[in-house]
Design goal:
This protein has 337 residues and is of the alpha/beta class. It has a domain of 85 residues: Rossmann fold (3-Layer(aba) Sandwich). The chain has 10 helices and 15 strands. The longest helix has 17 residues. Bound molecules: threonylcarbamoyladenylate (TXA) and magnesium ion. Magnesium ion binds next to loops.
């Protein structure tokens, strides 16, 4: 099999029609979203969801996000507390996933929720939103990459990785945000907002909109509370080294804001996430640059320090996972599977 590619900007109607048709057959389709490309399938069908897990080689105990086209659709499957509703109204469509209690009559399949009594819901913007509206069912969609690899932010990335395993890639161009959605869960009793995964919506923005603080977990549990989210092989082939202030000849360098790094003239490749120091631009470039640095053939990728505020929190989270020790096993899974 070789995936067909349809450009959503060039043939929007055919992209929707073919997307709906292939999804209706219970197959998985790569779709563009503002965060990263998703590998989407009908969230109400076990056979369709199984295809996602098989294609990615992803452990089945890791739940998937279900994507909806608006709050009304979300309400068919989940119960909103007031704070969660406020966040959905403020940020949907957009790069925010909210963990909510499932309704007892929800038709989202338990394979998508890994049997939990909660569901992760996100309302994506743009083409993905139109596709879900036309399909009129929720789409389960993790990032469209082999489990453990760097997430794709272009149709080319998806083609290189999964092109022989899926029938259709809908090409919406480069993902604007570039890192996965921010995941939160609200304690319905207290209204406390718990940050489960930093992502494409800065925690500061969520706090501002909600008029209350965001709670983070300290220590390794901070990485996330969902099942199977601790290990870290969100990884390029090369070893990643963080907070580099000097590099050895032949290393690849990813820097930020024009930072001067000792020895950089002997780097295999030098990439600046944002020469002007714009964290949104840096997030949008992050995964593509990790892939490019990897493709340079360097055994090590050195990364200079990135400010840990705003979208920098998500960038540093993904970099920490990429740099974490690898044991070669895929038994544990990251939230980036
Ligand atoms: O931007 C994104 O969020 C992308 C695009 C495609 O929408 N999707 C994505 O999905 O990153 P995925 O499957 O790679 O990440 C989903 C994360 C996992 O870490 C999973 O454990 C968590 O969401 N999750 C899903 N349902 C959950 C639940 N009910 N409770 C806690 N965590 C949940
Ligand atoms: Mg992923």
């Amino acid at each position: 099999m070789k995936a067909e590619i349809i450009e959503t900007g060039v043939e929007p109607q055919r992209a929707i029609r073919e997307g709906v048709r292939v999804l209706g057959e219970g197959l998985a389709v790569a779709i563009p979203t503002e965060t990263v490309y998703g590998l989407a399938a009908d969230a109400t069908r076990a056979d369709a969801i199984s295809r996602i897990y098989e294609t990615k080689g992803r452990p089945r105990f890791n739940p998937l996000i279900s994507h909806v086209c608006d709050i009304a659709m979300a309400e068919r499957y989940a119960v909103f507390d007031p704070v969660s509703r406020q966040l959905a109204e403020a940020f949907w469509p957009g790069p925010l996933t909210i963990i909510l209690p499932l309704k007892p009559d929800s038709i989202i399949h338990s394979l998508a929720t890994a049997g939990l009594d909660t569901v992760g819901l996100r309302c994506p913007a743009g083409f993905a939103n139109e596709l879900i509206r036309a399909f009129d069912r929720p789409l389960a969609a993790p990032s469209a990459n082999t489990s453990g690899k760097v997430s794709p932010t272009s149709a080319r990335h998806v083609m290189d990785d999964l092109g022989s395993k899926i029938p259709l890639i809908l090409d919406g161009g480069a993902s604007k945000v570039g890192v996965e959605s921010t995941i939160v869960r609200v304690d319905p009793e207290t209204g406390t907002i718990l940050l489960l995964r930093p992502g494409g919506l800065a925690a500061e923005e969520i706090a501002r909109a909600a008029g209350r603080g965001i709670t983070r977990r300290a220590g390794p549990a901070a990485i996330i509370e969902a099942p199977g989210m601790l290990a870290s092989h969100y990884a390029p082939g090369a070893a990643v080294r963080l907070d580099a202030t000097a590099i050895e000849p032949g290393e690849a360098l990813i820097r930020f804001a024009g930072a001067t790094i000792t020895g950089m003239e002997h780097a295999a490749i030098v990439l600046d996430l944002s020469s002007s120091g714009d964290l949104a631009e840096a997030a949008a470039n992050l995964f593509d640059y990790l892939k490019r640095a990897d493709a340079s053939g360097a055994a090590h990728i050195a990364v200079s320090a990135i400010p840990d505020e705003g979208l920098g929190e998500a960038i540093n989270d993904r970099l920490a996972r990429a740099a974490a020790p690898r044991d070669g096993s895929h038994e544990e899974e990251t939230d980036n599977g």
